Amino acid sequence: MSFDPATLVYDANGLIPCIAQQEGTGEVLMMAWMNADAVARTLETGRVTYWSRSRQAFWVKGETSGHTQALVDLRVDCDRDCLLAVVRQEGPACHTNRRSCFYTSVTGETETELMSPMV
Amino acid sequence: MSFDPATLVYDANGLIPCIAQQEGTGEVLMMAWMNADAVARTLETGRVTYWSRSRQAFWVKGETSGHTQALVDLRVDCDRDCLLAVVRQEGPACHTNRRSCFYTSVTGETETELMSPMV
Questions:
Q1: What are residue B24's DSSP bridge partners?
Q2: Residue B97 C-alpha from the chain's centroid
Q3: Which DSSP state fits B47?
Q4: What is the ipTM score, two decimals?
Q5: Element spanning B59, H or E
Q6: Among A41, A66, A67, A84, fewest CB within 10 Å belongs to which?
Q7: What ranges do the domains of chain A cover?
């Protein structure tokens, strides 16, 4: 029996969060959202495909920027309401041109930028 | 000026997703939700504190199970609508007693369990 994306748990907008993690280094690159069709497309094509909430359209990661995410492994959590995509990220994952979207460290006192845009 | 959790972007329920990642190994352990008060408590106490959507109460990770998460670093993403907590996880992070909640690998064909409960 093939895997059915309908067996995942989606929110009121029909979306499930997906964390992207770099294969090998374990670096957490970004988090974005998928709907059931985006999950199916990701599995079918091997190219990580999100659902853009702002554009209300499929978002094949890197399609315009070239900063693609090749799927290595897709994992679902115990509650089936969150995904982890292990990927091979080409270049920066973040739209700010940084490798990861999580480049700001927060303490009770202040925020510190941990990484610079890639050149 | 101290960091103000109100500067983060919360969803319609006042929540922001927080990914927990093990320091050193980079293993993604779980994803859960925080509200602004949970963010503040996490930073103040150094113990990762979520907001339980099912119980509608603060959830100090490991308070009952002993499987605590000591905060090493809290990071906010470029859109300020997702958090990454780098932690020192004591024992399993998952309620199924597995180290990580992401223990199931999905392909177009099937699901495969990648890890067993800890003993």
A1: none
A2: 15
A3: B
A4: 0.96
A5: strand B57-60
A6: A66
A7: 5-91
Coil, strand or helix: which one is B39?
A: helix
Q: Note the CATH number of domain A5-91.
A: 3.10.20.810
Please list every residue in chain B whose beta carbon sits closer than 8 Å to the beta carbon of residue A71. Answer: none
Task: Say if residues A6 and B109 touch (Cβ distance below 8 Å).
Answer: no
CA A108 from centre of chain: 28
Is A101 within 8 Å of B36 (Cβ atoms)? Answer: no
Contact between residue A74 and residue B92 where contact means Cβ atoms under 8 Å apart? no
Distance from CA of B73 to the nearest CA of A (A): 7
Return the closest-CA partner of residue B37 out of B68, B77, B10. Answer: B10
Question: Which of B3, B21, B105 is facing A106, going by the closest CB pair?
Answer: B3
Q: Which two tokens stand for residue A57?
A: 């359209």
* CB burial string A24-54: b at 16+ within 10 A, e below: eeebbbbbbbbbbebbbbbbeeebbbbbeee
How would you write the pLDDT of chain A (119 residues) with one tens digit per residue? 578 999 999 999 999 999 999 999 999 999 999 999 999 999 999 999 999 999 999 999 999 999 999 999 999 999 999 999 999 999 999 999 999 999 999 988 899 999 999 97
A4 in a known ligand binding site: no
Question: Are residues B69 and B21 in contact, defined by beta-carbon separation less than 8 angstroms?
Answer: no
Q: Is the pTM of this model over 0.90?
A: yes
